[in-house]
Amino acid sequence: MTNYFSSNFKLGILGGGQLGKMMLYETRKYDITTYVLDPSFDAPCRLACNHFETGDLLDFDTVYHFGKKVDVLTIEIENVNVDALDKLEQEGITVYPSASTLQTIRNKGKQKEFYQQNKIPTAPFIKFANKAHLAEGITNNRVKLPFVWKSTEGGYDGKGVSVIKSGKDVAQLADTECIAEEMIDFKNELAVIVARSPKGEVKTYPVVEMEFHPEANQVEYVICPARIDDQVAKKAIAVALQVSEAYQHVGLLAVEMFQTQDDEILVNEVAPRPHNSGHYSIEASYTNQFEQHIRAVLDLPLGATESKVAGIMVNLVGAEGYEGDVIYQNIAQIMSMDGVTPHIYGKKQTRPFRKMGHVTIVNKDIAEARKIAEEVKNTIAVVSEKKRIKI
Amino acid sequence: MTNYFSSNFKLGILGGGQLGKMMLYETRKYDITTYVLDPSFDAPCRLACNHFETGDLLDFDTVYHFGKKVDVLTIEIENVNVDALDKLEQEGITVYPSASTLQTIRNKGKQKEFYQQNKIPTAPFIKFANKAHLAEGITNNRVKLPFVWKSTEGGYDGKGVSVIKSGKDVAQLADTECIAEEMIDFKNELAVIVARSPKGEVKTYPVVEMEFHPEANQVEYVICPARIDDQVAKKAIAVALQVSEAYQHVGLLAVEMFQTQDDEILVNEVAPRPHNSGHYSIEASYTNQFEQHIRAVLDLPLGATESKVAGIMVNLVGAEGYEGDVIYQNIAQIMSMDGVTPHIYGKKQTRPFRKMGHVTIVNKDIAEARKIAEEVKNTIAVVSEKKRIKI
């Protein structure tokens, strides 16, 4: 086995945001040497890695030359130059997730087609090359209103996703390749994180339940375990395992799913990395998702995925109307609540709906945790000294 | 309240070893700006702090000038220049633990006298100015053999402590101020960590039970909760609170105690900072000791100190006969065991009995955790490629 610990081994991470930052807690814990590439000098990962480089994650040469310096390369964001990863793989660098998996996942059209090909349940959809074709599809009734529009590339945190209720909503959409997906009348949005190592060891985290902010389309609460029937939970885990197996994925794969009114499970989308829906694991799980991702990509044994206690995660996003140097209003107040841990990502500037941090609430009693989570949400606010003046 | 999070506030830490390194996980989590001073450029804290300085922790000017740069100053090692801290306090820098507390604690003679003055139960002792006086004390029967010899200054991890069984053992001792302490026939060595904030909020962690390595005099297992009677646990916590109150201590105070054959509690010694006996808390407690120390010195609300699950900690010390580039033999094997997390401090070179890391074992069942802990201890070894050749 490679000696990863306090050795010359080098792990590369593409992307230096909050997911990378939380990964670095684990590489520090194991004393694994890390190289991080991110376009921003002020990226949350700048501290705590061994080598930090600024550079464009979508530039072939930048990613290729960065990758040549490390032994194993992983990501904390999908939006990277995949051709460079492909070439690195050919030249013997270990890349997880693989270039081909990433190629499929980061394009929402290809991702959906992959599910169809692999008989993975997912909402019906039609792919369009551009906006004109989409408009035509609506006119000739191939697409029924309302539907969910998704740009195939570059979507993240609700960007590149819109609910289209009437033909005239199309005007505001970007002119890009897209899919029109049937709107699912769902009971719950669920997620399962699957960890898989190169030698094929597989573990799944418990099913979590998500609540989205109605306007920002960002997750507001993640609740673990999901308060659903055992049979539905088993089905969700089986589907998640099917997805991981189909991709032959290595590392973490977060599988987001809908539970329909008929208790069917439909895969919405996946993320091939630690995910917002797994942040609760830092405080609640035997092995948190960031440690698990590191274990998986290094082909170390996977850790236990069970929970010690119930966990709820609240995202901390910038309050509407505020822009500038961030202030976490009433943070001391939430720290006095039982089992509450704030995580501050280290972005100095807030703006409306920007992901600035998250708060985990753990408790032996999930109902109690849910109550405290709501108190947390009603108490803390991510603001700035001056209210933004609207023009 | 001061805005600590993603702000210009600066926390200084004297010492850059493993305790500081684990504190930095928490300052990163909260995005608190940190300055660290340590004599070694390769200190485990070099990464993950905002500013790292090399310098002598015992040098007045070095500590003073470092302290002037920060808003709140704390320590991860007691062996620092206390006069500089005293002057910094006079000049308005917040220093926790305070210079006067540190002055008393870091000298084992003064620490024992403090317990006497404050009616805190402790083993009987006599202080001697040097080795000749000690020898005289033995000759004229003021000191009864066997006894425990402790150098009043500079002792750490078993250094500066010896069990003296006969008069001739005295020859090998350092010629220094020392105490001769009555040997206690104890059932258990216990510890309680007390957290106390400037506004006087106080919380105690559960009583832990320690097992020492018979030769190296270093802790081998720390078991939480201690498997002792409730009445004894209550007494231990009461004594620990008495000690914290007497010192008016701010931050963490680890109180090490003996449980005698008669179930009396005697204070052995204290450490005014996160402590080896609290490492289990990272995985087992609602609030780990490092986060708690940060909360306390910043006068933030203290977190819950209860455990989610039982925790056992095994120290990883360099194996006898090995010196050089460290290898963690069979580390992957222990990572496949249930609820096992290794912590690697990041020291590149091993030597016999050097503290290189620790392993935490958590489990809902303490007996199961104890079994796994023994497997861990029998499996992992801290070695180097070549066995040291003895001359």
UniProtKB/TrEMBL annotation, chains A, B:
A Pfam family that this protein carries is RS_preATP-grasp-like
GO CC: one term? cytosol
Q: Where does ATP bind?
A: 108, 150, 181-184, 189, 268-269
Name a biological process GO annotation: 'de novo' IMP biosynthetic process
| Enzyme category, top tier | ligase
Q: How does it assemble?
A: Homodimer.
What name is this protein filed under?
N5-carboxyaminoimidazole ribonucleotide synthase
